[in-house]
Design brief:
With about 160 residues, the chain is an alpha/beta fold. The chain is about 50% helix and about 20% strand. It has 6 helices and 5 strands, in the order βαβααβαβααβ. It has helices at about 15-30, 45-50, 55-80, 95-105, 120-125, 130-135; strands at about 5-10, 35-40, 85-90, 110-115, 140-145. Strands 3-2-1-4-5 form a 5-stranded parallel sheet, sandwiched between helices. Strand 1 (about 5-10), helix 1 and strand 2 form a beta-alpha-beta unit. The longest helix is centred in the middle third of the chain and has 26 residues, at about 55-80. The chain starts with a strand and ends in a 10-residue tail after the last strand. The mean pLDDT is about 85.
Length: about 160
């Protein structure tokens, strides 16, 4: 049987961090691999800042920030849970398409673990959340993390 490969899309939100925590705990139990993914959606700037030129420096800084963030997640998993079977990736484009199709096709993940909500409230209100889209269209099973039940008493 092939090793389980878990995709964890992250955007810096608390929900993404809860989903990463849960993914690591599942991966430890199942001897699975984790791919952390940050999708930089440069299209969002075109609508909000049509008169402003997005420079290569801006995209470079966004990429550096995303890489530092994902390195901190990987370090957290190592330091706190002694888990190291993690790679991180940065992609550019539509988060919906990259998470649902493109990345899965390239890396053959069989499970996506993601938060119920992310940082982009405007897109969620106007077009539906990335999570909702991924849940309906992904080429892999999707686990949506709503709470951090590990740190809350069950009722």
């Amino acid at each position: 049987m092939n090793k389980v490969k878990i995709l964890v899309p992250v955007d810096g939100s608390e929900a993404a961090e809860r989903s990463f925590d849960k993914a690591v705990k599942i991966a430890m139990t199942e001897n699975a691999h984790i791919d952390i993914l940050n999708v930089i959606d440069t299209r969002q700037f075109l609508g909000e800042m049509q008169d402003t030129l997005i420079t290569g420096d801006t995209v470079y800084q966004m990429t550096q920030d995303a890489e530092k963030y994902m390195q901190s997640l990987k370090k957290w998993a190592h330091d706190n849970l002694n888990f190291d079977d993690i790679d991180y990736h940065i992609r550019y484009g539509s988060p919906k398409a990259v998470i649902s199709y493109d990345f899965i096709q390239d890396h053959h993940n069989n499970l996506i673990i993601m938060g119920a909500t992310g940082l982009n409230a405007v897109e969620r209100m106007l077009m539906g959340s990335v999570t909702s889209y991924v849940n309906q269209h992904a080429l892999a099973d999707v686990l949506i993390v709503r709470t951090d039940i590990a740190n809350k008493p069950l009722k």
